[in-house]
Amino acid sequence: MSTDRVSVPAPADWHVHLRQGEMSELIAPHVKQGGMSLAYVMPNLSPPVSNAEQAASYIKSLEALAPETKFLGTMYLGPELTPDEIRKAASLGIRGVKSYPRGVTTNSDSGIEDYDVYYPVFEAMEETGMVLNLHGEVPSDASKGICVLNAEARFLSHLEKIHARFPRLRIVLEHATTRAAVECVRRLGDTVGCTITPHHLALIVDDWAGRPINFCKPVAKTPDDRDALQEVIREGHPRFFLGSDSAPHPLASKYPSPASVGSTHDFVASCGCAAGIYTSAILLPLCATILESFGALDKLEAYVSANGRAFYGEPAPAGSEITLRRASSKIPDAFVHPKHEDKSDADATKLQVVPFWAGRELTWEIA
Ligand code: NCD
Ligand code: ZN
Fold it and tell me: Amidohydrolase-related domain location, by residue (predicted)?
């Protein structure tokens, strides 16, 4: 007999990009619409959230846009983060520090090159219980044989080294995409967790090569890598959990046109498509649909609620269950900011975000 209803206590998204300005106005309320009670918010704004006060005021601005959602803040690992700043942030309720290796993804120009200089910061984080969130890729460098396909595997020695030096520091390897990463996290101690996105449970290389809508960092890898991600979720391993890495970009940045970039020459010479996949507004039904597709619906609660909440020490509030019912529902073609509804789709300034799997059917919806 197949199940027609599934309930999960207070789903939480442990890695989400909620942006600023009009984009934020559009998508911050989508966290709740997508079935999440809690959002752990990434700091790669422009400029980045690089100290305690900025993180606290960013969280306040999100709370004003979506008062029913619990937002937890992070800061961007960089020179402003001293041990004192960590202690100040901890006292303001900021929960983590995100590290981006330089140049590997959206707004990572101020990312880090070497971890050793941050050891005093990691020590203060260990003391205050703050979490280190790692974007686990090294920058591409053809002279060293590094490209987007092996950038994650080549990063894992950094994770192992930091964990060995700071065994009590909670570390999350974010958005793992490879069998190598899954095996590495399995091997390490209880203080090391790992987020897995729903889109990486579905995509492989062929799905993004030539298709900007499925392009994100780290890129989806081989069928065997995807199998490893599915296996660890199907197993319900307690240190693997949902971080959607939902990362909206305006359609004009995903599919730039010569007109939006300036000249045809500039367009061809310099313009790439933005990295990031948008899932916030459809997240819980998407997770249920994808987990069921590989026989893991019975691990939905572990994936979207129990495991991440246990790792971060944020138990689900009483009476906070969300119920899904089996029903076919079509994913919208796009989400458009109300101020931009009158503009034509060709207008490059129109703020519209096309979600993952736009136009496809999900098999679950929020009851
Ligand atoms: C993210 C973004 O757009 O902010 N993009 C992405 O492809 N995942 C940045 C990130 O988390 O790497
Ligand atoms: Zn991200």
Answer: 73-176
As a residue count, the chain comes to: 367
**Burial class (CB within 10 angstroms; exposed 0-12, middle 13-18, buried 19+) of 148:** middle
Q: Are 13 and 283 in contact (CB under 8 A)?
A: yes
Q: Which of 18, 152, 245, 356 to mutate to test the pocket of ligand 1 (most atoms within 8 A of CB)?
A: 245
Residue 337 has pLDDT above 70, yes or no: yes
Per-residue DSSP letters for 269-329?
HH--PPP-B--GGGHHHHHHHHHHHTT-GGGHHIIIIIHHHHHHT-PPPTT-EEEEEEEEE
Q: pLDDT (tens digit, 9 = 90+) per residue, 295-325?
A: 999 999 999 999 999 999 999 999 899 999 9
| H helix count then E strand count, the chain | 15, 14
Atom of ligand 1 at shortest distance to CA of 105? 12
Domain coordinates of the chain in residue numbers? 5-250+277-320
Of ligand 1's listed atoms, the one at least distance from the Cα of 249 is 3
What's the whole-model pTM score? Answer: 0.96
Closest ligand 1 atom, CA of 215? Answer: 7
Reported as a single tens digit per residue, the pLDDT across 141-187 is 899 999 999 999 999 999 999 999 999 999 999 999 999 999 999 99
Measured from CB, residues less than 6 Å from any atom of ligand 1 are 17, 44, 105-106, 135, 216-217, 245, 247, 275-276
Distance 247 CA to ligand 1 centre (A): 6
| Atom 11, ligand 1: residue with shortest CA distance | 245
Cα separation of 285 and 288, whole Å? Answer: 5
3-state DSSP of 4-70: CEEEEECCEEEEECCCCHHHHHHHCCHHHHCCCCEEEECCCCCCCCCCHHHHHHHHHHHHHHCCCCE
